[in-house]
Structures are given as C-alpha cells and as structure tokens.
Amino acid sequence: MYNLTDKQIVLGVTGSIAAYKAPDLASKLTQAGAAVDVVMTESATRFVAPITFQGVTGRRAYHDMWDEASEIAELHVVLARRADLMVIAPATATTIARLAHGLAEDLVSLTALATQAPLLVAPAMDPHMWEHAATQANVATLRSRGVSFVGPEEGRLASGQMGTGRMSEVPVLLGAVRNALGRGGNLTGKKIVVSAGGTREAIDPVRFVGNESSGKMGFAVAEAARDRGAEVVLVSGQTALPDPYGVDVHRVRSATQMRDAVLAACDGAHALIMAAAVADFQPAEPVGEKIKRKGRESLTLHLAPTPDILAEVGRPQGLVKVGFAAESQDLVANAKAKIESKGLDLIVANDITASDAGFSVDTNRVLVIDSKGEQEEWPLMTKYEVAWRILDKVQRLFEA
Ligand code: C5P
C-alpha cells in the first residue's frame, strides 16, 4: 500500500567507516515493509559483519562472488533482476569509480552493472577524496546516466577533520529511498502545496502568540505526496522537524508570511493541503521595542484577524483544497461550516482532546468530511498513513 511495502531493495555496502550506519538503514527499510537484500564488498565486511544484516533483514547478506555454497546460481543476476531499487550506502570513492567505468570486481559493482533498477548512491569519504577531480568526474558521469546521489554532507568526519564527505544520516537516506521509489507514482505530474506547523505572531521583538502544533501531520502529507511522485512545495511555520528530502521547503513565521508563500506556491498547483495551525488572530499593533514590565499594572493585547489563507486562495485552475480542523467541541458542525466558508473539497477533523491524536504525537484519529457532507471516521493510525489516505481522496478528486 505504501511506497516501501513489498518493494525489493538491494542495499550495497562498501568499505567505509560509515558502514556502521548501514544496518540501521537496512533495519528501517525492512520495518517499513521492504524486502532488503544486502550485498557487500570484502572491505565492508571488515567494518560490519554480514550476520548483522541478516539479523535485521531476515535474509542472507552476500559478499563472496565465488560463493559455491550459495543456494542461488548467478546471484548478482537474480538480485539485480528482482530489484525495484539499488542503494549503495556507504559508497566509497573506489566503488563510485568502478560504477562510472562499468567495472564489476565485487558483488556490489557487479550487481549495480547487472541491474536495470534505479540506482541511489550515498557517498562517504575523506573530503579530499570527494573533491578530487577523478571522483567529481566519475560523479558527473554517473549523474548524466541518471544515477541519483544523496549527500555527502558537511561536518565532522571520522578523521576528526571538518569538510564534505559524511554519509547522510539514516532518516535522510530513508527519505531519498522513498523519493526514488516514488518516481512515476500515481501523483506524477501533479504539483501539491502543503502547509504545516504553527505560526508565530509577534507581540514585540522577543515575544509572540503561538500554538502547540508540531508540524508532524503536514510533514507527513508532504512526504507521502513526494512518495507518490508529486512535486511538493511545503510551506512550514514553526516546527523542530528537518526539511524532508526532495521537497521544496519554505520556512515562514507569521500568518501573513504564510499567506504570501502559499499564494505564490499555488501558481500552477493542482492541490493545496493546509495542515498548518495558522493563527486566527495577530497582535493588532506589534511593538518595535521589547515591552517592559516596569510601571505597568496590567497589559492588554489587542488582536486583529489574520487573513484566512484557504478562503483567500480561491480556486485557480480548479485547485483541489483540503483543510484541517482541530476542534475541542462540536467537531462535525464546526468542520462542516469550514467546508462552506473556506470553499473546501475535504476537511480532516480531529478532536484535539484525545491523547493519541492531534498535536505532537505520531498518530492521529480523524473524521474526513467531503463537500457533499459525506463522512468517514478513520481508526487510529500513523500520521503518514492518514496522509496516504487523504492523498487517495485527492487523487480521486483529480480524476473526477
Ligand atoms: O478556522 P480554523 O483556523 O479552525 O481553520 C482551520 C483550517 O483553515 C486549517 O486547514 C488551516 O490551515 C486553515 N487556516 C487558514 N488561514 C487562517 C486560519 C486557518 O487557511 N488564517
């Protein structure tokens, strides 16, 4: 159902100290429903044992091209044929050079040469090796053949040096894998704008009116849309979450900034999904200097309404619009009223008084109402699953 479920992934592991992160990647991919076949170079086995991969994937990990005891004849051919995606993480400079030159000297480069599946490479090496003209030329060659790269990133390396050469962390790699598998998915060719997180309305230079939104629901929608092949623009208010891989992220602060960013992003968009907790009111006259306590008995804040973004967007080129309603009372009546006032196709309502749904947690229990008033109550599920099902509905609206 989701884009990793039942997918066959070949994970190639080569000889870099960053190989210590590879079992975690293999484990997370397996937990997400993929069947993961690990192939390793001999030098990779000096850093991590094949048995470690076997433990987390439940499948044999291979490193010997000449393994006569293997139950599969022509191992590389079998693995290469059944793969939906091959990921090499970490990829050393040597492996990148082998890939660029079509050399097949070990099980990783052999399988990479034999497969027609998309190839995703996560380099890990010393900064000088990464910057070397030979490596850069090899990377350019591979890119021109359609190979995708994730990282390397800048930071502290195992040698203690600072520079570019760190392998991307597992959550980033997972995003890149999902992104790669999402290409050609059923939202390909669609531009989807998503908003997430809470806005902050300035009272003075250091204080603001804010809310409890974590941004998790909107980020899950952006990721799920990416995983189905959509071009995604994420307009994010306040959140601690990192930018999702492969998503165009615009960070904003206030409701007014969010309005401007959302309106600009909606140009050419097919759907707008507003999961952000936008402030309904903002301080009417934000003060330029920090407000002092001294000499005051009390302080009254005057609030003025913010622009209603969903209502203001209108329906350029038949834009599909989805709103969210976080309610603590009269859930259905309030949600239905919002469909009318904001001109929505769907509203996703949740009762924020439940502890396993709504703000901050990873799960949600929602009620979905469409513009005809039809209601569906969905059981408790992860926010990613909720996002996936919302997108099923959006996709049906595109088809209608
Ligand atoms: O009216 P209320 O804030 O409850 O509506 C919630 C829905 O409307 C959410 O989808 C939210 O992102 C959106 N909204 C908006 N502009 C506002 C306030 C909320 O688009 N100023």
Written description of the protein model:
The protein is an alpha/beta fold and 400 residues long. The protein folds into two domains: 2-182, Flavin prenyltransferase-like (Rossmann fold, 3-Layer(aba) Sandwich), CATH 3.40.50; 191-399, CoaB-like (Rossmann fold). Helices cover 34% and strands 23% of the residues. The chain contains 14 helices and 22 strands. The chain has helices at 22-31, 44-47, 50-57, 75-82, 93-101, 107-114, 127-131, 133-144, 170-182, 216-227, 255-265, 309-313, 331-342, 383-399, and strands at 8-13, 35-40, 61-62, 85-91, 119-123, 148-149, 153-156, 162-166, 191-196, 201-202, 208-209, 231-236, 248-251, 271-274, 281-283, 303-305, 320-327, 346-351, 363-364, 367-370, 375-377, 381-382. The strands form six sheets. The protein has an eight-stranded mixed beta sheet, with helices on both faces. Strands 3-2-1-4-5-6 form a six-stranded parallel beta sheet, with helices on both faces. Strands 7-8 form a two-stranded antiparallel ribbon. A hairpin with a 5-residue loop joins strand 10 (201-202) and strand 11. Helix 1 packs parallel to helix 3 and helix 1 (22-31) packs across helix 9. It is elongated, with a radius of gyration of 25 Å. The chain starts with 7 loop residues before the first strand and ends with a helix. The structure holds cytidine-5'-monophosphate. Cytidine-5'-monophosphate binds at residues 195, 255, 274, 276, 278, 280, 306-310, 323-325, 338, 342.
